[in-house]
Amino acid sequence: MAKAFEELDYQETPLGGLSLRRKHIAMLGDLEVYEVMLGDAFLMSSLFHAVEDAVAHLGLRELAGAACDVIVGGLGLGYTAAAALAHPNLRSLIVVEYLEPVIGWHRRGLVPMGAKLTADKRCTFLQGDFFALAQSTSGFAAGRQFHAVLLDIDHSPRHLLHARNAVFYSAAGLGAFAAHLHPGGVFAMWSDDPPDAEFLAALQTVFATARAEIVKFPNPLLGRESASTVYIARKS
Fold first, then answer.
1. Which domains does the chain have, with CATH numbers?
2. Are 10 and 17 within 8 A, CB to CB?
3. Is 59 exposed, middle or buried (0-12, 13-18, 19+ CB in 10 A)?
4. ∠ Cα 196 194 229 (to 5°)
5. Residue 2: its pLDDT value, please?
6. What is the pLDDT of residues 15-57, one digit of tens each?
7. Fewer CB near the last or first residue (10 Å), C or N of the chain?
């Protein structure tokens, strides 16, 4: 008989205690669900990944046909990366993850997407600070430019995992980051908050086009729909 709740891993990190948990939800037919906690904050659940999928699909559908090299900021449970790998024109994928234990979960097969991501030769993991790399002159890979960057780290442009990330969401920070995209390159980002007019204006200052799309998904725990935001911006 499966345990109702099990902590699969716990490690201290520079951001606090990081926990990977697995539980079975009786009200959903004993559904197996994986959750990630950082300290007392709930980060993610395998029960809700429609928006993580949408970040990849909405971003990559902007790139018509040609082979593309992609960065995913934030590995988490792996759903954004897996959705990106499903696109037939994807040539290479680098997943940037700050917390080394998260990469370890995938390599050890502790999370559902781990085997899929580690077996795909197009996918590599890079342990590092996405936001620091985005602001650096060398970028994510020794000056290489990319066709798309898909970001799923902070809860929103205002609700940050660390205060030092704030510069990225300014026009100056986005401008430095945009240098790492090819002309016509795409930036897509998840936010758990409604569309933010100030952040959208910063995107529109830097990129040729920018919009916010609300993505709705069923929430069986609440018995109603929930919604998040995906920002999509494209370089001239």
1. 5-43 (no CATH), 48-234 (3.40.50.150)
2. yes
3. buried
4. 95
5. 56
6. 999 999 999 887 777 789 999 999 988 889 998 888 899 999 9
7. N
Mean pLDDT, residues 206-223 taken together: 88
Give the helix ranges, DSSP H, for the chain.
50-60, 79-85, 100-107, 114-119, 130-135, 171-178, 197-206
| pLDDT, mean over the chain | 93
The three-point CA angle 225-231-234 to 5° equals 150
Predicted local confidence at residue 27, as pLDDT: 76
Paired residues of 149 in beta bridges? 71, 187
Answer whether residue 82 shows pLDDT above 80: yes
What is the number of helices (H) and of strands (E) in the chain? 7, 11
- Angle subtended at Cα 24 by Cα 31 and Cα 103, rounded to the nearest 5 degrees: 95
The pLDDT of residue 1 is above 60: no
130: amino acid identity, one letter: F
118: exposed, middle or buried (C-beta count within 10 Å: 0-12, 13-18, 19+)? middle
Half-sphere exposure of 224 (CA within 13 A, CB side): 3
Q: State which H helix or E strand residue 150 sits in.
A: strand 146-151
Who's near 176: CB < 8 A, 6+ residues apart?
A: 134, 135
Strands 123-127 vs 90-97: parallel, antiparallel or unpaired: parallel
